[in-house]
Design brief:
This protein is mainly alpha-helical and about 270 residues long. It contains twelve helices and no strands. Pfam families: BPD_transp_1.
Length: about 270
């Protein structure tokens, strides 16, 4: 009993230390963002006269409203389609006996090893040939394809753990494959789908390279993609740069805090099945 209490105390101390180390960079950025715009922050120090107006200047200069609309459009194009396709493909690979399914699964695993930075040039020429450059579709379509390997493998891992007796019972009752998916499989997959949706949202919202390469208009990029132009404009005014970076990071932090229970539930569910 004493050993268990000691381990619990040590575990809590470690978690507190990790939390502090995680929050320190954010606190440092916040203190830097509140410095006068013409001052170079020198370490972590809370200013005597916080310049909260730096956030208003960064918000206005970075065209945050336009970027919010563009980022939302890209997210709404990527996340629902990715969830739909990965759910159907994951169910097919996990529950249905399809010819060549094992080879498709191996190809998906190989796709996980390819960094999309290595194929950015072919993506550029393909998008250019489709006439989609400088539009949000130039980012939406490649991201759906790039997310498929992970998304399908994720959903397949869930469907493999679902008892086959449920499918057999549904077939005996006369349910078609799509009825089974809609009425049985999808409700059971909600934790996995919720966690995948959170991951896809975070990856899409924080996407930097693709919008920077494929979209010339900064107002049509993601918020993270516009950070490069903002950085070039205010490289010598670090407080404004810190304020802009915090504004860009805020939506992802809020989304994770709101849906962290669903995310952790899905991870624990996978661990129990594992």
């Amino acid at each position: 009993m004493v050993v268990n209490k000691t381990e619990a105390i040590i575990g809590r101390i470690v978690l507190v230390l990790v939390l502090i180390l995680t929050l320190l960079p954010l606190a440092g950025m916040l203190s830097g963002a509140l410095q006068p715009a013409d001052r170079i922050p020198d370490g972590f120090s809370w200013p005597s006269d916080p310049q909260w107006g730096n956030f208003a200047v960064a918000f206005r200069t970075a065209h945050v409203w336009e970027l919010l609309g563009s980022s939302t459009l890209i997210v709404l194009g990527v996340v629902p389609l990715s969830l739909l396709l990965s759910t159907l493909a994951g169910y097919a690979l996990g529950n249905l006996r399809i010819r060549g399914g094992k080879y498709v699964f191996v190809l998906l695993l190989l796709g996980l090893t390819i960094p999309f930075e290595a194929i950015i040039i072919p993506i550029y020429y393909e998008v250019s040939a489709m006439g989609l450059l400088d539009t949000q579709w130039a980012v939406i379509l490649p991201l759906i394809g790039l997310y498929m390997p992970f998304s399908v493998v994720w959903m397949r891992a869930h469907f493999v753990g679902v008892p086959t007796e449920l499918s057999e019972a549904a077939r005996i009752d006369g349910a078609s494959t799509f009825q089974e998916i809609r009425r049985i499989q999808i409700p059971l997959a909600m934790p996995a789908l919720s966690a995948l949706a959170i991951l896809l949202f975070l990856w899409t919202w924080n996407q930097f390279l693709l919008p920077l390469v494929l979209i010339d208009d900064p107002d049509k990029r993601t918020m993270a993609g516009a950070l490069g132009a903002f950085q070039g404009q205010y490289l010598n005014q670090l407080p404004l740069l810190f304020a802009g970076a915090l504004i860009i990071m805020l939506p992802t932090i809020v989304i994770y805090v709101i849906f962290q229970r669903q995310f952790i539930k899905a991870l624990l569910q996978g661990a129990v099945k594992g």
